[in-house]
TrEMBL record:
Cited SUPFAM superfamilies: Adenine nucleotide alpha hydrolases-like, Carbon-nitrogen hydrolase
Enzyme type, top EC level: ligase
CDD domains named among the record's database cross-references: GAT_Gln-NAD-synth (cd07570), NAD_synthase (cd00553)
UniProt-recorded name of the protein: Glutamine-dependent NAD(+) synthetase
UniProtKB keywords: ATP-binding, Ligase, NAD, Nucleotide-binding
Organism the protein comes from: Caenimonas aquaedulcis
Every CN hydrolase domain range: 3-255
Enzyme nomenclature, EC number: 6.3.5.1
PANTHER family with a match to the protein in the record: GLUTAMINE-DEPENDENT NAD(+) SYNTHETASE, NH 3 /GLUTAMINE-DEPENDENT NAD + SYNTHETASE
Binding site for deamido-NAD(+): 382, 411, 527
Catalysed reaction equations from the record: deamido-NAD(+) + L-glutamine + ATP + H2O = L-glutamate + AMP + diphosphate + NAD(+) + H(+)
Coiled coil: none
Length: 556
């Protein structure tokens, strides 16, 4: 007889322990009605994964404890059901007469109103966005429990990336490894996960079920796409990515009645562009929704960056919750206004035009005495950007919508942005997307309509015309920066691969350009520290992945 098991691939809200518990209860009841006797929820499902310093508050831990008890109590009548819930666990431990607070990243097996087992994560990641050793103590135990005659070994996320935890579970009799996870998305991460779990299954000769979180939490996105692999490393089942699912599968025995064999539905393969788009959409939707903002607004310039952000916002929230504002200056080209109007029409959002020319002239008049005899330069350019920022923030204050900034990673890296100007806002949608990728995504979105909001939302001229900030006559981005194809290649090597200047030059890039780009990255750290939080889509984003000093002398 096969064991029916379920992955409750759910989107939780950090700190909403009661609400999260209710989602687990409802998903478990639905799974039980479909025959499931084992339900796996993601890592730290009771509290949400990225709770940060909330983990240090005793009241938060107590709330999590209460929520675990609630789940156990509410599901007590479902005979034979086993539910794995992730939660923090800990308390005061006496050590040499001193009370020491030790907390664990744990998972409990609940069945018929009782906590059967509690397992504590052994391998705590402390790299990239992870900081688990700040909050948790490594566990030392093993957890193997039986459901419907199948011995299930329980691991938590990073445990499955190391040899020992799975090996110990296998030696303790595990015939199936259940791994609960909260693994932040970046482009290519899904391929990495599958390769590692397939290798683990083959090495231990047991199937692996990878139960994953879905949803956005501040800058990180969890992409779902939970899956299972059999002992030979082949894909047995895969849930859809970037959405909730109560995902069912079967665990039976092979023809000889020995090995456990998994089978279930397999969601279609995905392209990197689709993953990236869905990550941006989910990141926006959850940041806005979970924080209770009524909608968003952004400055629509007629350029590629704001066009892409507008398309993401409409896919995430719907046109009725998005407002676009065009703020022309004396240097705004007529085609920019035309293209902005056309895009707003295509996606169906409210569109307004507010000229900044009167305010710009007033600023120049007020500063004329101070600036007498001095030529116009970036000062006047930045004044325009800051006027736009003031307008957008005023609309945000008055109507409650949050401002989406539209700067990309190439600009953030090199400081090609204005503090308190185009950087002013509450959420930076594409701050981890290089400019060349912005163009790729725009082309991809024009060919696809993943959310039913309409194909071809971005006018072709926005994609094909040379990028320009339009803050002075006849300006293009390449007046100040190398061609984006060159710049982005250097940025990828320097930031994502940690290559030094000499190494990049040796790869064939011009010395003067490489040294200039490295200098721009270095001197603009102070700007990046003041930027809004934004969606992480690479393994080296400007945020928790990037912790460089503002003040320092090291050069490389």
């Amino acid at each position: 007889m096969a064991l029916t098991l379920c992955i409750a691939q759910l989107d939780f809200i950090v700190g909403d322990t009661a609400g999260n518990a209710q989602k687990i209860i409802e998903a478990s009841r639905a799974a039980y009605a479909q025959g499931a006797r084992l339900v796996l929820t993601p890592e730290l499902s009771i509290c949400g994964y990225a709770a940060e310093d909330l983990f240090l508050r005793p009241a938060f831990i107590a709330s999590c404890d209460d929520a675990v008890k609630t789940v156990a109590r509410e599901l007590a009548g479902l005979k034979g059901l086993h539910v794995v819930v992730g939660h923090p666990f800990g308390g005061d431990i006496r050590s040499k007469s001193v009370a020491v607070q030790r907390r664990f990243n744990a998972a409990s097996v609940l069945s018929e109103g009782r906590v059967l087992e509690t397992y504590s994560k052994r391998e705590l990641p402390n790299y990239q966005v992870f900081d688990e050793r700040r909050y948790f103590t490594p566990g030392q135990g093993i957890c193997v429990f039986q459901v419907e005659g199948v011995n299930v070994g329980l691991l938590i996320c990073e445990d499955a990336w190391f040899d020992e935890p799975g090996l110990l579970a296998r030696e303790a009799g595990a015939e199936l490894l259940a791994v609960i996870n909260a693994s932040p998305f970046h482009v290519g991460k899904g391929v990495e996960r599958f390769a590692r779990m397939a290798g683990r299954a083959q090495a231990l000769d047991v199937p692996v079920v990878y139960a994953h979180l879905v949803g956005g939490q501040d800058e990180v996105v969890f992409d779902g796409a939970s899956f299972a692999v059999n002992a030979d490393g082949t894909l047995a089942a895969r849930a859809p990515g970037f959405r909730e699912d109560v995902f069912m599968m079967q665990a039976g025995r092979d023809a000889a009645g020995g090995k456990v064999v998994l089978r279930g539905a397999i969601a279609p393969d995905r392209t990197p562009e689709a993953d990236l788009w869905d990550a941006l959409v989910l990141g926006v939707r959850d940041y806005i929704g979970k924080n209770g903002f009524p909608g968003v607004l952004l400055g629509l310039s007629g350029g590629i960056d704001s066009a892409l952000v507008l398309a993401v916002a409409v896919d995430a929230l719907g046109a009725d919750r998005v407002r676009a504002v065009m703020m022309p200056s004396p240097y705004t080209a007529g085609i920019s206004t035309t293209d902005a109007r056309e895009m707003a029409r295509r996606v169906g959002v409210r569109y307004d035009e507010i000229s900044i020319s009167p305010q710009f002239e007033a600023f120049k008049a007020s500063l004329a005495g101070e600036f007498k005899g001095l030529p116009e330069d970036t000062t006047e350019e930045n004044i325009q950007a800051r006027i736009r920022g003031v307008f957008l923030m005023a609309l945000s204050n008055k109507f409650g919508s949050i401002v989406l900034t539209t700067g990309n990673k190439s600009e953030m890296a090199t400081g090609y942005c204005t503090l308190y100007g185009d950087m002013a806002g509450g959420f930076a949608v594409i701050k981890d997307v290089l400019k060349t990728t912005v163009f790729d995504l725009a082309r991809w979105r024009n060919l696809h309509d993943p959310y039913g909001t309409g194909a071809n939302p971005i006018p072709e001229r926005i994609i094909t015309r040379p990028p320009s900030a339009e803050l002075r006559p006849d300006q293009t981005d390449q007046d100040c920066l190398p061609p984006y194809e060159v710049l982005d290649a250097i940025l990828a090597r320097y930031m994502e691969e940690d290559q030094g200047v000499e190494e990049i030059i040796a790869a064939g890039f011009e010395r003067a350009i490489v040294e200039r780009v490295a200098r721009l990255i270095r001197i603009n750290e102070y700007k990046r520290r003041q930027a809004p939080v934004g969606i992480r889509v690479t393994h080296r984003s400007f945020g928790k992945d990037w912790r460089y000093p503002i003040t320092g002398k090291f050069r490389a």
